[in-house]
Write a structure and sequence with these properties.
It is a single chain. This protein has 13 helices and ten strands. The protein is an alpha/beta fold. Strand 7 and strand 8 form a beta hairpin. Helix 4 crosses helix 12. The longest helix has 27 residues. The radius of gyration is 21 Å and the shape is globular. Bound molecules: 5'-O-[(R)-(carboxyoxy)(hydroxy)phosphoryl]adenosine and zinc ion (ZN). Zinc ion binds next to helix 4. The site of 5'-O-[(R)-(carboxyoxy)(hydroxy)phosphoryl]adenosine has 19 residues, from helix 6 and helix 7. Pfam families: TsaD (PF00814).
């Protein structure tokens, strides 16, 4: 619909420079420039390298997205940007760019939460998010179970990892197996040739006395590394496919088991899985089966929307506009540890909690805000 908000979203929290454009729940452009190759030889993301790459990629990626969407910057109803959590220096590049564009164009600025964006992106694939939605968020930096009654204003953490994130575990095991970085996609691929029951690796925090919704992957990581070391010490060949499949099975088993349990306990009928690890084929298959058995509806976006991208930020920004959430102030800062309970960063000085979405007035609104806050 033409009256749905047209929003550009900028994502720079890690190593992807993402710029997406959406109209309401419709994806118009999803431009991503990744610096992952520059980090590969270090075996992980180097913050300074990521920040510099964002700076170089920012403007060309914005231009590419506008061209892909076939819209003029002046037609936008708002600019959304990941304000956190993420790498401070990397976030800062996106926030600065978003401010510059929003201010120059006279559009409202929406600083949004990276984790809530990973959930909201599913609206571009499967339509409006059911309320409430249970979200299993699994990426290189996070593993959380979140209950979201309203993705723009009410996100409640039920549990999270107490040590490594799920994606981090994939990356570390891939490193031990000399498979390169990032580890998730390559383990996913190699595991298809292996036996997931070959080795019984531990399932962390699944005992009766353990926290029901928290995760732990460091014990698993150590167990897999020791198993590989023992093989190597004995001069035996490491069965890479079997190790990959068995390790992946342990991660996916715990993730899906806890997510389904959370849905049942909370009486929620819809499970959404997001974040880079949601691209994992075994996770998708097991979640599908377990949700079906439990009578739950599963929503997982296509893999390209699961890994970091700008469309997810635009999707959440558009929802903020549609629901009349207040824009951010011009002194919006990047917050590397923005709490998951803050889906966006509203202007602390805004007098109203919501203003209704109106194309004609957004311009005035921005300039009012700018005078008040820019030099505050
Ligand atoms: O969401 P994301 O792109 O960035 C963060 O916010 O962290 O997630 C990246 C993580 C990496 O750890 C990567 O190894 C993992 O997602 N990943 C996967 C797969 N594709 C990416 N893990 C398992 N299987 C995959 N197919
Ligand atoms: Zn992410």
């Amino acid at each position: 619909m033409a009256d749905e908000p047209l929003v550009l979203g900028i994502e720079t929290s890690c190593d992807e420079t993402g710029v997406g454009i959406v109209r309401g729940h419709t994806l118009l452009a999803d431009a991503v420039a990744s610096s992952v190759d520059e980090h590969a030889r270090f075996g992980g993301v180097v913050p300074e390298v990521a920040s510099r790459a964002h700076l170089e990629a920012m403007v060309p990626t914005i231009q590419r997205a506008l061209k892909e969407a076939g819209v003029a910057a002046s037609d936008l109803d708002g600019i959304a940007v990941t304000a956190g959590p993420g790498l401070a220096g990397a976030l800062l590049v996106g926030v600065s760019a978003a401010k510059a564009y929003a201010y120059a164009l006279g559009k409202p600025l929406y600083g949004v939460n990276h984790l809530a964006s990973h959930i909201c992106v599913d609206q571009l694939e499967h339509g409006p998010l059911p309320e409430p939605t249970m979200a299993l968020l699994v990426s290189g930096g996070h593993s959380s179970l979140l209950l979201a009654p309203d993705i723009t204003s009410d996100v409640r953490p039920l549990g999270s990892t107490i040590d490594d994130a799920a994606g981090e575990a994939f990356d570390k095991i891939a490193r031990v197996l000399n498979l390169g970085f990032p580890g998730g996609p390559v383990i996913d691929r190699i595991a298809r040739e292996g036996d997931p029951d070959a080795i019984a690796f531990p399932r962390g925090l699944t005992g009766p006395r353990d926290a029901a919704y928290d995760f732990s992957f460091s014990g698993l990581k150590t167990a897999v590394a020791r198993w590989i070391e023992a093989k190597r010490a004995a001069g035996e060949e490491v069965p890479v496919a079997d190790v990959s499949a068995s390790f992946q099975e342990a991660v996916v088993d715990v993730l899906t088991r806890k997510a389904v349990r959370a849905c049942k306990d909370e009486g929620v009928e819809h499970l959404m899985i997001g974040g880079g690890v949601a691209a994992n084929s075994r996770l998708r298959a097991m979640a599908e089966r377990r949700c079906e058995d439990a009578g739950l509806t599963l929503r997982v976006p296509r893999p390209k929307l699961c890994t970091d991208n700008g469309a997810m930020v635009a999707a959440l920004g558009a929802e903020m506009v549609a629901r009349g959430r207040s824009a951010s102030a011009w002194d919006l800062s990047a917050d590397s540890s923005l709490p998951v309970t803050d889906p966006h960063v509203p202007d602390p000085n805004a007098h109203t909690h919501s203003h209704s979405h109106s194309h004609g007035h957004s311009h005035d609104h921005v300039h009012e805000l700018s005078r008040k806050n820019l030099y505050a």
